[in-house]
Amino acid sequence: MAREIIATEHAPQAIGTYSQAVKVGNTVYLSGQIPLEPVSMKLVDQDMRAQISQVFDNLQAVAQAAGGTLNQVVKLNIFLTDLAHFPVVNEVMSKYFATPYPARAAIGVAALPKGAGVEMDAIMHLD
Asked: CB–CB of 95/41 below 8 Å?
């Protein structure tokens, strides 16, 4: 099956050797997003709610560029430098997703790129 590279200016440009997303058949693999503002490429305010919202905005932009929405995400991985922020993830996530929610994992990590407090990647299936 052919791979299609997904790219959009509405999400941060890759800061390494990766694509924003790769589509294979009806499956789209969205690369990890940190809370970078797409135009300035700078981290948003250090407030965790703002960081989590920016990550979902970035994932949403990539999903849309691939022809989908966040409601087509089947697997979401969440990386947090402080798992105490997990309730905030749940609160903010409920504004971006409708039931049924995707499968997900929340993983505590020591550090993330550019000093971010959160990073997420996803797998999306296009109907």
From this structure: no
